[in-house]
Design brief:
280 residues; alpha/beta; UDP-galactose 4-epimerase, domain 1; 7-stranded parallel sheet; NmrA-type_oxidoreductase; NAD(P)-bd_dom_sf
């Protein structure tokens, strides 16, 4: 069996390839990347695969049995890009496809959801066996803000008292590896999230305890948070998106308590305190 992973040089893709090598021979793994040179030291076969260039996809997927399609990050263009990958997989006779979607994509208020729903439908109609991994939020999405919070003396956001059941990229990678290397997952959709839900005030309290500094959580309106992110150097469109995701968290978009992720990987997900400690 040959397993190919798209987005192999991305943060999630690197975790998946590293963990997958612990379960199957490196010769059965193919890393697909827009810039193959970035995966040169991955220890597996590397092929060029650009979501926007169908010819590269058709070549890259030759001889592949199972494909892990990691969703792209070009917001607004992903449905068409994913369609290119799915079409190339069909053309090459790929037997099974696994896709990284979004937690409760079909009901989520996040603006990320529609492209995921559209991709899921394309996969379900493709004729290939499939598994949908609806990944919740990455803990790193919030712990990446720790250096700024320490500098500013506060952790800012717009999530209110919304509970966030995040997990680390390594946790979600473990779920992907479990599905790729074990039977019984065909036709299933998994809603994946962390075991421990927390508010941003909880995160700030844990950060304060570990750092020895008082770092309160300061909740501000979505528009003000977006403006602050622009002032910090982010493009306006991306800043607005991040602020809207925080508002979605306030509506419960990032919370889930069914523990499908920990059951799938056979262990509890990484605690928030451990992730904060790693950053510090």
């Amino acid at each position: 069996m040959t397993i190919a992973i798209t987005g192999a040089t991305g943060q999630l893709g690197r975790h998946i390839i590293s963990q997958l090598r612990q379960h199957i021979p490196a010769g059965e793994i193919v890393a697909l990347a827009r810039s193959p040179e970035k995966a040169a030291n991955s220890g597996v076969t590397v092929r060029q695969a650009d979501y926007t260039r169908p010819a590269t996809l058709e070549t890259a997927l030759q001889g592949i049995d199972t494909l892990l399609l990691i969703s792209g990050n070009d917001l607004g263009q992903r449905t068409a890009q994913h369609a290119n990958v799915i079409a190339a997989a069909q053309k090459n006779g790929v037997r099974r496809i696994v896709y990284t979607s979004l937690l409760r994509a079909d009901t989520s208020p996040l603006n990320l959801a529609p492209e995921h729903v559209a991709t899921e439908k394309l996969i379900q109609r493709s004729g290939m066996a499939y598994t949908i991994l609806r990944n919740g939020w990455y803990t790193e999405n919030y712990t990446a803000s720790i250096p700024a919070a320490l500098s500013l003396g506060a952790f800012y956001g717009s999530a209110g008292e919304g509970k966030i059941a995040s997990a680390t990229r390594a946790d979600y990678a473990a779920a992907a590896v479990a599905v790729l290397t074990s039977p019984g997952h065909e036709g299933k959709t998994y809603e994946l999230a962390g075991d421990q839900a927390y508010t941003l005030a909880d995160l700030a309290a844990e950060l304060s305890a570990q750092s020895g500094k008082q770092i309160p959580y300061v909740n501000i309106p979505e528009a003000d948070y977006a403006a602050a992110l622009v002032k910090a150097g982010l493009p306006a469109g991306f800043a607005a998106a991040i602020a809207s995701w925080d508002s979605g968290a306030a509506q419960g978009a990032l919370f889930d308590d069914n523990h499908q992720l920990s059951r799938l990987i056979g262990r509890t997900t990484t605690p928030l305190a451990q992730s904060i400690k790693a950053v510090l």
